[in-house]
């Protein structure tokens, strides 16, 4: 008898029918029992009364029983755990109408005892026995059983319909068995079931029919199975389920198709699966989700829509994944979120270079970013986190924290920071002050790595006297925004220095992504004004349209990383002539056409100059008319003559083509006359011309060029031919030929007479006018006395 006085007192205090009876009966029972359990001489069972329970409790555990002792009818709860009971207990429990709870854990059952008689048992546990199957015929129709626990057996098979009589079941636990698969609609009569546990089995597929009928289910635990495949609609009808645990399985994808129907779900845990993919829209049918555990999976990227619809989420665990990319809007749906675990991922701030990625999480209280690859923290990283109280940044080799990084986090109390890589330059003094003013200091154990004098010093002990210059790269030359000409080469140059000077690595980014196969020339360290610097040149040897974009160089050394400003490169195409002007000659009054047109990107503008001047007669006098490919100069004048330059200009550059415009005036002869002279006289033959350009003159006598002699010479630019002392041999037919593009001839007949009388005849002369063989003209020549 181990009834302590205390429990006795309680027993009496809270006395109930059964208990009162027990107090008197206990002794009798013990006496009765001795002969039953022959093999166990020290048996004292039942021996315990605990009236705190609603039912009379009898503990017969750990008695080495091989068979069930006779149980008094008043027993309400019977504990037969840790005995050696086997299957031959059928009917033993018959007639125990008070029996409400039966524990048969850690016995030696190889199948479920048969309870096919009417009783009121509501709770049976047969954990850790050697049951290998659940067959039909163990439970009576309309069984009162509410809770059945058969954990830790070797159940492989559950016969189809085996649970059909358990219509009142509320809790069913089948954890730690060897179930590989379950028959479809096994639970179709369990419309009252609220909790179903199947942890630690070998289930590999959840079919769409398996859970049909579980309309009251609130909790489903299937952790530690081999689930690879969850069929579409597998949880359809789970309108009451609020807790679903699928941790430690082999699930690869989260898909809307199987999430369908989980409308009341508040907690979902999927940790330790093989999840790489979360389909967009997966959460659409579980808007009530408050807690989501995706830790220990293989997620790489959180996209804008990965968590779409999770507007009520309070806790999100993404720790222990491979997350390296978080898109700008990834968390913006979760305005209610209070706890976010992102620890043990591959988040690297500097690489992402994001702006306020968490800025919508204004209710976040606890934020864990420990164990990532964060090297520096920029001022916008924690923007908007106005309610964060706890921020864990441990196990990141953080080198720098920009001023104002914690502007938004005004409620922060615990900042965990243990980097031993901090660059304690004077720029970090703000942090020292901030820590002193705002947070509980004992969570901050970060120490300086640089400068050497303060290496190992806890950041809180940094002050104006021991801080130094920043050893992070400083960009001395940012890449330039410029226009690159298609099909030519272009360069982007980035130079940086650091103090002390250390090896720097340059990385070029285009539109925030990496450049594939960049041609980078890195220059040796040079000295200029005694200051060394390193240069990286990104070469684009043959520019194409796809090279346009925003370029940025990222310079790192062992102390940190610095980003250059972004250089915008736009691609242009150099102008190229499609029509070039050629030299043109026109007659005065006619129209001159000068070709000029060019292509290019942007399309070039065409402009004209004459002899290098913008202001020229044809333009001034509005005689110039442009068309798409050429200009007309109408009513050409001699003042229009000159070199015309056509310029085709766009932002890539300018090309120029020249052409000469000649405007010809018909050369009018001032005077031409036939002459008769007396021998011995001197003769003057004139061939006065005007015209432009000043034409060249050639004199011929009887068809042959005239060679000047002592008596024959030219003067006045060859317009005058003089013969001194004419002789009869000088008589003949003289010609003066004018050549510009319009060839003209004048003939003079010279007669040399014997030296007597002189007569002068006036004679009409025919001037032959030719222009490109198309026109002739007659000209009346004036006559004049010598
Ligand atoms: C990345 O950082 C640089 C320098 O701090 C900044 O100029 C740029 O705007 C940032 N880019 C993004 C997308 O945040
Ligand atoms: C469990 O039962 C199987 C047969 O069903 C038997 O081979 C095995 O030895 C039993 N294990 C224990 C621990 O009793
Ligand atoms: C249900 O109960 C009836 C009557 O008690 C019994 O004959 C039948 O085998 C039971 N069915 C199952 C599946 O246990
Ligand atoms: C079980 O309950 C149903 C409905 O309550 C009743 O129709 C049926 O007769 C009962 N079966 C037994 C064996 O008590
Ligand atoms: C997971 O998703 C990927 C891509 O959508 C698909 O190729 C793969 O078959 C899916 N795996 C499973 C187990 O559904
Ligand atoms: C994600 O959202 C940002 C900001 O709205 C947007 O710039 C970006 O293009 C989006 N990315 C994708 C893949 O939708
Ligand atoms: C952080 O620094 C420690 C010591 O310098 C080093 O062992 C560790 O690999 C670094 N971790 C990362 C993620 O760079
Ligand atoms: C942070 O606050 C300071 C002072 O209140 C202000 O000057 C600064 O612009 C703020 N920085 C950011 C990034 O909000
Ligand atoms: C800098 O880089 C060069 C060449 O890569 C290497 O030989 C040298 O050891 C490096 N110096 C330091 C201080 O890392
Ligand atoms: C290296 O720098 C010098 C001086 O700035 C420059 O003349 C040279 O072209 C650079 N070399 C390369 C490969 O960029
Ligand atoms: C056009 O005229 C200029 C000068 O008169 C001359 O130098 C040039 O060669 C000419 N061009 C052609 C194509 O004839
Ligand atoms: C075209 O003419 C301009 C001025 O008339 C002169 O400066 C330029 O050198 C010429 N260009 C060519 C290619 O002849």
Automatic annotation (TrEMBL):
Identify the Gene3D superfamilies for this entry.
Immunoglobulins, Ribonuclease Inhibitor
- Domain of life from the UniProt record: Eukaryota
- Entry keyword set: Disulfide bond, Glycoprotein, Leucine-rich repeat, Membrane, Repeat, Signal, Transmembrane, Transmembrane helix
Enumerate the transmembrane spans. Answer: 20-38
Q: What is this protein called?
A: Leucine-rich repeats and immunoglobulin-like domains protein 3
SUPFAM superfamilies, from UniProt? Immunoglobulin, L domain-like
Output the lineage of the source organism: Eukaryota, Metazoa, Ecdysozoa, Arthropoda, Hexapoda
User: Domain Ig-like: where?
Assistant: 473-570, 575-662, 667-749
Q: Which organism is it from?
A: Bicyclus anynana (Squinting bush brown butterfly)
PANTHER family tied to this protein: IG-LIKE DOMAIN-CONTAINING PROTEIN (PTHR45842:SF21), SYNAPTIC ADHESION-LIKE MOLECULE SALM (PTHR45842)
